[in-house]
Amino acid sequence: MKSEKMDLADLLADESFINYCKRSSPEDVAFWENYISDNPDRRLLIEYANEQFLQLFNALAEADMEEQLGRLQSRLDLTEPAPVVQMGGIEKKKSIHISSLLLKLTAAAVLLVAVLFTVNYYNTGKKKSVKIFLAAYGERKNLQLPDGSDVTLNAGSKIEINESFGVSSRDVYLEGEAFFDVKHNAKLPFIVHTPAMDVKAVGTAFNVKAYRNEKLTETSLIRGLVEVTLKEDNNQVMYLYPNQKIQWEHPLEKPATLNSAAIKNVDTLNGAGSRMKKLIVTDNGDIKEIAWRENKLIFEDDTFGDIATMLERWYGVNIEFNDNTLHNYRFTGIFEKEDLKTVLDFLKESRNFHYTIEPGEPLKINLSK
Fold it and tell me: Is the pTM of this model over 0.85?
């Protein structure tokens, strides 16, 4: 079964998907990689199902290893030679003793290798144990982490934590967008990791937006104080105060290696502080950067290209531009709990364009002039 409507349970029971996870069939691997490419809205589900399968596969491998160890131990216990009748003098007895000794050594060696493999599995495998939380396209999710911190995940987002979270560290790995209301713990700083920046807090409330393949990574502070490390800018450290945000635009190409003096000159010319911006607050008091938590869409002179990306996540649809000039149309507006058609009809009133909706899973929206 290879349907767009497959859920997590269906995927884990599908032979083709299992072959993809195990990388045992080039045809199935190619199929699912193409499927992810053609259905970006289901990529998070596929990745999550893959991770769940691998965890299940490792657990089964562990159980099988314990069973094999038990069998080896039983065979080792039975390696004592059975009683024999001496028929050829001392040489025959010596031969039997040597064979028994070799069997013992072989079984012991196999047992030792198995034990070492098991120890290595526990020492390495457990370190990689992670817990994943995700929100699919078209949904938002509220959750509480083991340390008591509250998290709201925006559509098309996921976070990962390891089993030591809240015990020896509080590291969170984010892909997408999430709002964090952090439980105070001065001994264990709360750190959100993204490809472009790390955000460190002790007790605070902030939003991090770091979607894959989007040009901007952004952190917005609502309460408290956070330390932001710009990993793509020579690990520069900056501090955010309430009602401030910092944006980092990913370079299209990796810059050539610069010495420290050159980096300093570049920062002086560009102004490191220019990355700091005020949060956008509407006349109604809504903060644009976190309005999604209240189920509100706010556009503030945003391009149609950026708006389309938000609408795809918000409603779980695919949007295609049949005319590239539409990308640069700009809109301002506030929408609260409106359906997609209402939003598009409102945008049409200010700029001239047409749209059609093609049925399917997901829906496809075609935009044209």
Answer: no
